[in-house]
Design a protein that fits this description.
77% helix, mainly alpha, 348 residues, elongated, 2 domains
Amino acid sequence: MNFEYSKATDSKSGQLTRTTRKLNKENKENEEIEELKRNNLKLRGEVSILRQNLLSVEKENYALKDTRNKQIVQKLDITDKLKKELKKVQLENKIKENQLRAYKKPRITNLTTTQAELETNKQLDLKFILKNINEKVVFSLYPFRYERLKTLHDYFYDEFEKLCDATDTIINEITSIKHDMMLFLKLFYLFCGKKEIFDNFFPIVIVLFLRDCEKYPKPTLHKITSKIYKILTEIDLGWVIKLIEDKEVVENMQIFLDNTYYSDYSIIFYKRIAKERPFILPILLGNERFDKILLYKELNNDRTFFDQFIDSIPESILKDFVTIKNIHLFSNKILKKIFKDLYISYNA
């Protein structure tokens, strides 16, 4: 009987010991969890303070950039206004100088003349004045000289457009001056509104640029680059997309875009794609070049124009360009646009 009582006592004692150990272990784990919670809360507080400081610095930087940009825009507006006024005065003086050489034209005296007839008469008057200012203005492809053709393009586009129907002749003439890149490019720009001419020469333009870009001085290279991007931003984007379906063309195009990533003209082109054909932006731009442009603009303190481009990218496309490597270069506005409530909870 005593033996059984002793055995029961030992069993209860062992069970009590195990229970005590289990409670001690749980208490220790609870203490560790509470300690982790306190540390986590402390870290979140430090992160929140840090982000508030960063936000304050960003606001100051934005204010400084905004002030500087407004000053630059104001100066550009004044310069542009003065240029327009100067051009107007020069044109008026030129017409006055040549009035004595102009032939006398019979005037329309019919009071029932329609608005369409008045517009036609204005156009005829302009043609009459210009033909007498410069006797070399002839509504023909020949002589096939840039300045003469540009005059037709700028002042008599209806007649110039009719001349573009002679596609084979134009292609032969432009092909013959490929050795002079600047002249070749300027003539191509005049006629690139004709799809057959664009399809024929645009791949050649890119190849010639890649072949000879290193030999051009910087001012010439800048002119050539800006002219190519001007074509890309003005031409039917569907034509460009159709061309880059060709493997060789798209490879050359990618090299051209890589070599000229620093140009603001490239951002104008990408912005156009973001608005009109956003689905091909990841193909033509890509993450690597996007990061390169973003970093270049950040280092040169020239973010305004690029930020406008970023803002034009649809959210579904833009989120693929945001990575752990570049997230710190995006503004709070952009990050909130992409991550929405997730971004807000992170800052809580």
